[in-house]
Design a protein that fits this description.
Three copies of one chain form a homotrimer. By secondary structure, chain A is an alpha+beta fold. The first copy, chain A, has 14 helices and 27 strands. Chain A folds into three domains: 80 residues; 161 residues, Jelly Rolls, CATH 2.60.120; 189 residues, Sandwich (Jelly Rolls), CATH 2.60.120.10. In chain A, the strands form six sheets. Chain A has a seven-stranded antiparallel β-sheet with strand order 1-23-20-25-17-16-15, with no helix packed on it. In chain A, strand 7 and strand 8 form a beta hairpin. At the A-B interface, helix 1, helix 3, helix 4, strand 2 and strand 5 of A face helix 1, strand 21, helix 10, helix 11 and strand 22 of B. Chains A, B, C: It comes from Cucumis sativus (Cucumber).
């Protein structure tokens, strides 16, 4: 007996420490493995053998945890996985939703905060991409989210139900706003090309989450009517149960379905009969506007930029979101610059290229926890920048927080098309870091001299050499030009 | 020695795994027991006996955890408990605050996010119900919260202190706004009936929490003055300590206290002397308005609906909250419908009935974690709806998120009275799913045909049969009518 | 073998319980040690010896946890540590950022929510204090945060870059707004005194966090340009790599650097050439205004209070922040009072004194978790107040939530200067709890009588004795006066 207890005690300590190691690791968001082992070392009461055992256990514990992490939805897990690399660039693997019907597909980007705490500022926004095959109908649905949609390719007609019904033609470059809860359906009326739509959604009921609701449905997707009890539906519709069941169960439409030429034609025809002024409450759906028909705010032979700001377009007003379209000529680049207030959510529509961003250096701990570890960083007064890099190709999404200097360039042989949603766009200013109008040129020369600790003339030579604005020749094609410098 | 270590090692593994099981279970919000056991099975290093031990431990661990869970405030616990069922309906057990004095009672509904992450959208709002006995005085108090109160029963007089004092009569159906921090007190001047008040509170200082502050008090509730040191109070009041102590300690008023007929009369009299225009900053307290005296926005022999929107009533403007009162005739129902933007917080005042809502299906994991498990759900593109059900009776509170189709019905022999606070009400639209004006009738017939995959005429027959609007005969009383269908 | 298993089983239980104890302790934020031990006691399967072992382990576990807590950034840890005492007062140890250059220093206060959940309401705000030595230049930087700065001491010139450049003189008492993302630099043009600036920051990209970005830099701080690849910079600047490297690597300016008399003079001169009307978008930077030159809203021989509200000053409008400066005469005090809506973030500039606040009593559990434990508190209907106390001296920061009664007093021989940022200031009202205009005097005498359960005349005598307003003689100097009372 006394003997057993002795062992207990011994194991007790061991056990005790391990629990501490593990739970502490869970509590503080630090590199667990490192910490777990660290604690093995500092246990005075352990002999060498025990310390080795202990460290081994850490390894096993952590290995196991990671495996499990995958099988079970756990935000913490996610973050730790992802953030070791760069949480600002998303590709296919980060699209969680995926509805594949024979006639098209719908992808939803993961929740931003599932990727990193650093994206908390846009937690409430989601990105979704819809592709509908030629001659198809996307069935009536409503969302518990505000929607801004951008037509990336194709021709369609969309119908939205409010007090009245309104139908609108959709062309490439169109921006259209669907207010939260409004039922809508649309067609791809092109007989040959897909209709591609990029959506920005802002949740209405659960922050960062949205849900879709269909009146019609079968097995899956279901009709939301079937969530009510049959006797309630009998009363609501004044239709006997058997009829209701037949009606709501038989159908298996799916979300995107084939439509006949006649159906397409008749659904398209409606767009002529749109009322000139259409009664919608302020800041909500109105006829679409075409972004590409706006006067480009930047344009030269290296690229063009189109922008629509919320103060000009009532569709964007209440969300405070701007939308922009950039077309970067092959081998060209966008000037390094930053936005003073807005967070950019960019979706690559086509082409190839690269993305670079300066991000104040994250300590190992904060890189995992997604927090700016003041303790470790600031105290030392350290200020360095993490080099964020991303390869850009169709379907890639990248995020640029306010204040963060970044640049984008097209590959030498493909131009690059990007649509950008700028969240928190009111009062936003673009600050250029190179080319005409760059911020350094705007400083007093003594300030430049002091700041750069270099004769003013020399600083000037550095920042005045590039005379283009916003779009420049890109990294891979100006060897010859340097000679002149 | 070597021997001890051997055992250690052995136990080490066992221990190691168990910690993992348990802590992992804590980390990922998954069905812990299931997971814990699952991990027992997958331990290669265990023999059968060990695996069995291990599973048994899981059982014990979990049992223990649940017991403890009850004794110790733990949001996690709460959620897991609740969300397995339906987090949208609250009854007595979900009222946490409970002040019972001889002269009345005050109940506070638990924090919404304590119930479920799905209610994060209304985290900052709280519900409280006050019942004051006949001829009572509710002592002066201020809250760190904005308050909208609705008089559900009885007659009173309320006094609010701002730059000046203002007194107002309160009748059944009155809606009154008390700005954050304003001290107020009120009386139930009826000598026979209780005064019943339903409050919606929006926190000012700590999101989702509010606190009450009383100048007068004794043991409990205390006077907030007693939180200051006596020497400070001596200086502040220019009154010696002994007098102060006697003054602030002796009294034991409680929160709701009996008042004499004379006191009631004199406190009531004041309402005549209210200034016509009363100086209050925009969007804040003004004289009450009576919801039931508004023109009903829906009314037929099956029920009546009264609504006050924030754009019409300055008291509601800055909170963006609408308030509605529904009286559903016995045996009648409300049309299945949804709100496009607002989240409904409904309090049943009287009667009996039922509540049904369609909620996009939550996976087992998300049902617990309160998160919409994108991983599991979306990837499969699954879209089904959870059937939310609730029995309604006096004091029950239910929540309806934006976009969620729902319906309410009264029992065959009791009419049902409900007061609703609609959070985020600006630009909200009600969409009807049955009866006149239902969304399906507003669609083009080809869209209906494609959507429901049924001949247009047939769809029309389904959705045109019910000719009433909003209030219908309910589930249990129209056998005969179906014949006609 | 059977033997080993027997032991396993035994230890199993022990282990099992301990894990439960520990992890439970982590899950529910309750006094862990207490809980851990509590669970030792309730283990039926343990004999006395085991129970004792078990409790000892709890002690060790907790000790260890605390030690570790210090080494590893862990919000949980922080809170538990801090909140046992008072989370509303911050001194030197709570400043995390610390940049010490030879020529000055920059301190950043820890994130409020790192201190306590109770401060969630101001999570998005941060406080920073800058001290620049005489004749120094603070190099060009931009923040991903909105900044309100208050000049606590000295004379400088600040330059902000927007579409154009604007330079402004800074004197003691000046309030200046720097919009998020705008690059700025400033000088201390005094040859003898330090320039002291207090900043309130509101994050733009990551809630509760801000980052700084410098175009110029060397090893540390780095230039953000160096986060881009050299080939990209070559293209952007049309400058060959070797020149770029030399330019961006050579410099080691630091953040605050010495400037020559000539440089200072020339940078100061610019202030004359400021455009009369300067093109800035609404609610953003404009010329500074001087708080101390406003008409004091309270003033007597015991102190003076200056306030600037967001509705009068466009610089404060979009942030909804008011700024106030209080100068309390030695031995005097501020009347106990509270703000109806705003949360006060106060920074002590100079002097010595004390702070007292009434905080609705937090249960032991909530004191740790920073949550208002409804379960335990409300159910009992208990309402008492925690006595919050703080010693005030230069550099101390304290927070006063809306609705919380508080008072501040100066020591008998030092006057006290405090600058206050009032977050959520729109429609805020000050309610006085003593002195002229106190809320009790505004109540009907019957209400006072009922509330204080004391004859009205007596209540009146208590609350009418102090005739001063807002500033009173303080705790330590009126023995004689009491005689008169």
């Amino acid at each position: 007996m006394a003997f057993k207890i002795k062992i207990n005690l011994n194991l007790h300590l061991l056990l005790l420490f391990l629990i501490t190691a593990v739970c502490l690791a869970l509590a503080s968001k630090d590199p667990e493995l490192k910490q777990c082992k660290h604690q093995c070392k500092v246990q005075r009461q352990f002999d060498e053998q025990q310390k080795r055992d202990c460290e081994r256990s850490c390894d096993e514990y952590y290995k196991m945890k990671k495996e499990k992490g995958r099988n079970y939805e756990s935000e913490e897990e996610e973050e730790e996985e992802e953030e070791v690399e760069n949480p600002y660039v998303f590709d296919d693997e980060h699209f969680v939703g995926q509805i594949e019907t024979g006639e098209g597909k719908i992808k939803v980007l993961q929740k931003f905060t599932q990727r990193s705490h650093l994206l908390r500022g846009i937690e409430n926004f989601r990105v979704s991409i819809v592709e509908a095959n030629p001659s198809t109908f996307v069935v009536p649905t409503h969302f518990d989210a505000e929607i801004i949609l951008f037509v990336a390719q194709g021709r369609g007609t969309i119908t939205v139900i409010k007090e009245k019904r309104g139908s609108f033609e959709l062309k490439c470059g169109d921006v259209f706003r669907i207010p939260s809860g409004a039922p809508f359906y649309f067609i791809n009326k092109d007989e040959h090309r897909k209709l591609k739509i990029v959506k920005l959604l802002q949740s209405t009921s659960v922050p960062g989450h949205f849900q879709t609701f269909q009146p019609a449905g079968g097995e899956n997707p279901e009709s939301f009517y079937t969530a009510f009890s049959w006797d309630l539906l009998e009363a609501a519709f004044k239709i006997p149960r058997d009829k209701l069941e037949r009606f709501f169960k038989q159908q298996k439409p799916g979300t995107i379905i084939k439509a006949s030429r006649e159906q397409i034609r008749s659904l398209s025809r409606h767009e002529e009969i749109i009322p000139k002024i259409w009664p919608f409450s302020e800041g909500e759906t109105e006829r679409p506007f075409n972004l590409l028909k706006q006067h480009p705010c930047q344009s030269n032979k290296f690229g063009r930029l189109f922008e629509a700001y919320p103060d000009e377009f009532s569709q964007l007003r209440d969300l405070g979101v701007a939308i922009a379209f950039a077309n970067i000529t092959e081998g060209s680049m966008v000037a390094p610059h930053y936005n003073s207030k807005s967070m950019k959510i960019a979706v690559v529509l086509d082409g190839q290229g690269g993305f670079q961003m300066a991000c104040p250096h994250l300590s190992s701990s904060s890189r995992r926890s997604g927090r700016w570890s003041e303790r470790e960083e600031e105290r030392k007064g350290e200020r360095t920048y993490q080099k964020i890099r991303g390869r850009l190709s169709r379907g890639v999404v990248f995020v640029v927080p306010a204040g963060h200097p970044f640049s984008v360039f097209a590959s030498p042989n493909h131009s690059l098309q990007i649509v950008c949603f700028e969240v928190n766009a009111y009062g936003n200013t673009k600050y250029f870091l190179a080319g005409k109008e760059n911020i350094v040129n705007k400083m007093e020369s003594i300030a430049r001299e002091l700041g750069f600790n270099t004769p003013g003339r020399e600083v000037e030579r550095m920042f005045k050499q590039q005379e283009e604005e916003f779009f420049f020749p890109g990294p891979n094609q100006q060897e010859h030009e340097w000679a002149d410098a």
